[in-house]
Specification:
Helices cover 46% and strands 0% of the residues.
């Protein structure tokens, strides 16, 4: 029962192929074919020494992750486009800082192309700013 629950709750980033691999691995590693499978290994390569993915953006030198963006809306309303622009600028600056101002690495952190990053930097006039 707990194995079925674990299978249902897992996010399956690799989709059907990953599910197939996990089930096959459980069957192959099972000692008794008549006994229910209790332990499921989703990532056979899991290790505490494995490097973390470089998807999380946080300021360089910061030990704690950056807090969530401020999505509060004043009673008088707000300028949606300005809020979006401020958020994009903050993301661009954080990525550049984390990548030590290497634009190709910053683009990779944001999962956009180098040309897209350059377009955003031009759009917000951030090409020559290093603050």
């Amino acid at each position: 029962r707990s194995a079925a629950k674990a299978l249902l709750e897992y996010p399956w980033p690799g989709n059907v192929r990953e599910l197939k691999n996990v089930v096959e691995r459980c069957v192959y590693q099972s000692e008794d074919p008549d006994q229910q499978i209790r332990d499921i290994v989703f990532d056979p390569f899991a290790s505490p020494w494995r490097p973390l993915p470089k998807r999380s953006l946080q300021p360089a030198g910061s030990g704690a992750p950056a807090g969530p963006p401020d999505f509060s809306i004043p009673a008088a309303g707000c300028d949606f486009k300005q809020k979006v622009q401020d958020y994009e600028i903050a993301l661009l600056r954080a990525a550049l800082q984390q990548a030590h101002f290497n634009q190709r690495k910053a683009a990779k952190l944001l999962d956009i192309t180098y040309d897209q990053l350059r377009g955003y930097l031009r759009k917000y006039d951030l090409l020559n700013k290093t603050d």
